[in-house]
Amino acid sequence: MTLTELRYIVALEQTQHFGRAAERVFVSQPTLSVGIKKLEAELGVQIFERLAHKAIPTQVGKQIIEAAKQTLMNADTIRAIAEATQGELVGNVHLGAIYTVCPYLLPKMIPALQQTAPEVKLFIKEAYTQQLIDDLKAGELDVALVSPPIPDASLFESLTLFSEPFYVLMPKGHALATKQAITAEALRGERVFLLGGGNCFRDQVLEACPGCEQPRLFDKNWVQGGSLETIRMMVSSGLGISVFPEMALVPDENIVVRPFAPPMPQRQITLIWRKSFIQPQLIKAIATSVVRCLGRSG
């Protein structure tokens, strides 16, 4: 039994697909399949039930996988202890970030962190909040940048880094552009571009502006975008309006940006990490780099 084989079964449990599991752990599908069969043979039990298009854990398999997750977290703790004895600011760090943070914050944060901790090697993953939480629990990530609410928050340590307000983006010449500040009610009935389901920023926008969501499936005003950059281009083309977090604002001659009227909706950006990740100096270095690159005091 090896840690690699344990990582294989955790990846398969999360994806329920041999091909996607192999991609997650960066091996070929045959390699992953052979590794899992080898582990099953060694233990004398079937960990997964192989169906036509997916693999699901057996009852005993579920117990083994939970134990495997704990073992992998313990292994990471051992690694962290060893690295800490060599100096805190060394080693590999697997950092995750939500989609509405990663492209705007990390290109600024990483150079700042490299100045502070040049011996740290970062591995970056961009995903939805729930996937980042699952990866933290499985030991595949050490730390993550997310925006509350945080699922299973009691399992992690956390540090709120900063808050940022939301802004309304509209095409140049839009009727709302004459206003200096926009109320949430003013967005009701407008064609508002939203991110798709599963994105925490979409949920935050709808909480602040419930009128943005149109209940009728084919309502012409209800449009979902796959990314903020896609939505930005649609707004720039005059197709509708949207709501963006402050960090995602960039100059565009075809877009007018207006703040919300008080109280301004906002979100928090929080750094979370596994409790077994015992490198406080690295956590401090990451947090400081984030705050410094944005020119914030916290």
TrEMBL record:
Residue stretches making up the HTH lysR-type domain: 1-58
An MF annotation (GO) of this entry: DNA binding
A Pfam family assignment: HTH_1
Key words of the record: Activator, DNA-binding, Transcription, Transcription regulation
Gene3D superfamilies: Periplasmic binding protein-like II, Winged helix-like DNA-binding domain superfamily/Winged helix DNA-binding domain
Coiled-coil zones: none
InterPro entries: LysR_HTH_N (IPR000847), LysR_subst-bd (IPR005119), WH-like_DNA-bd_sf (IPR036388), WH_DNA-bd_sf (IPR036390)
CDD domains: PBP2_OxyR
GO CC terms: protein-DNA complex
Domain of life where this protein originates: Bacteria
Homology family: Belongs to the LysR transcriptional regulatory family.
UniProt protein name: LysR family transcriptional regulator
